[in-house]
Design brief:
The protein is an alpha/beta fold. The protein folds into 2 domains: 20-214 and 429-485, Rossmann fold (3-Layer(aba) Sandwich), CATH 3.40.50; 217-327 and 381-425 and 501-546, Phosphofructokinase domain (Rossmann fold). The protein contains 22 helices and 15 strands. The protein has a 9-stranded mixed sheet with strand order 1-2-13-12-7-6-3-4-5, with helices on both faces. Strand 14 (480-485) and strand 15 (488-493) form a beta hairpin. Helix 9 (252-261) crosses helix 20, helix 11 crosses helix 17 (388-405) and helix 13 (314-326) crosses helix 15 (354-362). The structure holds 1,6-di-O-phosphono-beta-D-fructofuranose (FBP). 1,6-di-O-phosphono-beta-D-fructofuranose binds next to loops.
Length: 549
């Protein structure tokens, strides 16, 4: 493999750590905690890991610890900085005892169940420091939720002498980490489970977690591309660019990219749901901005579309909820088996209620088809496969043609389509993500050496310089509530959606009319690693606004 000059230079970068993690630590415990919802149910489901205190690390006395081994899993979609979580964990356990070993399970949670692993040696680790991607061990979406899987897991954990397993994942994977921690604690298997907050989607955040890692770099990467498109668009002045952005459910990525680039339009799914807008309302909103700009002679512009939009349009949300129910086998709680896609679609059409049948029927064939087909292993509609950007631009074009016939519009409309998702998930981590992820991993080693289980590694105060970051752990049960998933009530980590009364959305809402009419484009340019701190070391605008900075 040929290594790029940037990769060689980045390999030499030593990520920063919070002051408290720079030497031996002591764990300071806060008060007992409660789950965010359904306290009695969560307590009953997690009797061994419920109510534990929040932990903060402070400088402490050095202790000699016997050698121990740790396992690590990368779970779900890639996010920039995953390798730095692993290097932080690696350096953290080696600093406790150089004999400690780190094993990586291959291709996600499936590696634990299938006993597929490698030892992460110093030579291997050094090839991946500060790089993007999850390729050191690979990732996967196998859902760890069954007792047989937990039992297969303990076999290999015992064989390798593993004291603790670190699961790096999003809300679903950390929910599973919590279930596994509880199971091993109940069985007194003596293996700790620690979670780490990952996802470019930015929806694993709450009072305790400031941001999930990867969100920063992914948004900066997309914002660079959007900025480039805006400059192209402003130069040629002939296209409307419809840009769909990843973020399966929440619109955090679209909102952050809008704050960074100031496009003419950015749709926020959570607002569309709150205002109970129909698909036609959304199309009318876009068409009106297009028509208003055409009056000023500007037949060009940019529209940012969150990937999860379709699921937030209230009528379609109801349709998906019914589809999820009918596609689940009530006896097993698993998806129903069908011989092929056609059989599945026919089953849906014959079973679904009349109201939802009509809605399904009104959608373009490809969209309807995708909604009826299989979910991912966590029960989510695979929204990345639905071409919302084309759907919307086709519908806007049809509306504008109608307005033209009625003499209400006299512009020209030509659309280009883009989907930015995979382009940003494996980008080399920004300085923020490089430091944040390394700290999360290093911090996980301290949760392990302090014998914690069922905790998520957390680093707070990250809009301040890294020295002042606060390191610690939060019981995963604290973030849980009961939600309906796959036709059943399940304990899950509550997903953070865009808050319409939050500072990032309010800032956007206060400026969007101006951005729609005038060309206020911002061109952020590529992520920078060396140079002035105001260019290289800034957190996201979302985080700054949330923290009033
Ligand atoms: P995670 O929640 O696992 O981090 O993944 C998020 C995501 O990147 C979404 O933005 C996107 O919808 C989905 O993964 C795509 O999944 P896949 O990689 O399986 O195509």
């Amino acid at each position: 493999m040929k290594i790029s000059a940037l990769q060689i230079a980045r390999a030499a970068y030593q990520p920063k750590l919070p002051k408290a993690l720079q030497g031996p630590v002591k764990a300071v415990e806060g008060a007992a905690t409660e789950s965010v919802g359904n306290q009695d149910d969560i307590k009953a489901l997690f009797p061994n890991t419920y109510g534990m205190p929040v932990i903060t690390f402070e400088a402490g006395e050095a202790k000699e610890l016997p050698a121990f081994n740790v396992g690590v899993i990368l779970s779900g979609g890639q996010a920039p900085g995953g390798h730095n979580v692993i290097s932080g964990l690696f350096d953290g356990i080696k600093s406790l005892n150089p004999e400690n070993k780190l094993y990586g399970f291959i291709l996600g949670p499936g590696g634990l169940v299938d006993h597929n692993y490698i030892e992460i040696t110093p030579e291997l680790m050094d090839q991946y420091r500060n790089t993007g991607g999850f390729d050191i061990i690979g990732s996967g979406r196998t859902k760890l939720e069954k007792e047989e899987q937990f039992e297969k897991g303990i076999e290999i954990l015992r064989e390798l002498g593993i004291k603790a397993l670190v699961i790096i994942g999003g809300d679903d994977s950390n929910t599973n980490a919590c279930v596994l921690a509880e199971y091993y604690a109940a069985k007194k298997y003596g293996v700790q489970v620690i979670g780490c907050p990952k996802t470019i989607d930015g929806d694993l955040k709450n009072d305790q977690i400031e941001t999930s890692f990867g969100f920063d770099t992914a948004c900066k990467t997309y914002a660079e591309l959007i900025g480039n498109i805006q400059r192209d668009c402003n130069s040629a002045r002939k296209y409307w660019h419809f840009i769909k952005l990843m973020g399966r459910s929440a619109s955090h990525i679209a909102l952050e990219c809008a704050l960074q680039t100031q496009p003419n339009i950015c749709l926020i799914s959570e607002e569309i749901e709150a205002k109970e807008m129909s698909l036609d309302d959304v199309v009318t909103y876009i068409a009106k901005v297009v028509a208003a700009r055409a009056e000023d002679g500007n037949n060009f512009g940019t529209v940012l579309i969150p990937e999860g939009l379709i699921e937030f349009i209230p009528a379609i949300k109801k349709l998906i909820a019914e589809l999820n129910e009918i596609l689940t086998d009530p006896t097993t709680g698993e998806g129903r088996e069908f011989a092929n896609a056609e059989e599945q679609i026919n089953y849906v059409k014959n079973t679904i209620s009349k109201t939802n049948f009509d809605i399904l029927d009104s959608l373009p064939e490809e969209v309807a088809r995708q909604l009826c087909l299989d979910r991912d292993p966590h029960g989510n509609v695979q929204v990345s496969l639905i071409e919302t950007e084309k759907l919307l631009s086709d519908m806007v074009a049809a509306k504008l043609n109608k307005w033209k016939d009625q003499g209400k519009y006299n512009g020209s409309f030509s659309a280009q389509h883009h989907f930015f998702g995979y382009e940003g998930r494996c980008a080399a981590p920004s300085n923020y993500d490089a430091d944040y992820c390394y700290s999360l991993g290093y911090n996980a080693s301290r949760l392990i050496s302090n014998d914690k289980t069922g905790y998520m590694s957390v680093i707070k105060n990250t809009t301040a310089p890294a020295e002042e970051w606060i390191a610690g752990g939060v019981p995963i049960t604290m973030m849980m509530n009961i939600e309906r998933r796959n036709g059943a009530n399940k304990p899950v980590i509550r997903k953070a959606l865009v808050e319409l009364d939050g500072a990032p959305f309010k800032f956007f809402a206060a400026h969007r009319e101006e951005w729609a009419k005038n060309d206020c484009y911002v061109y952020p340019g590529p992520v920078q690693y060396w140079g002035p701190t105001e260019v290289c070391d800034q957190p996201t605008k979302t985080l700054k606004l949330e923290q009033g900075k």
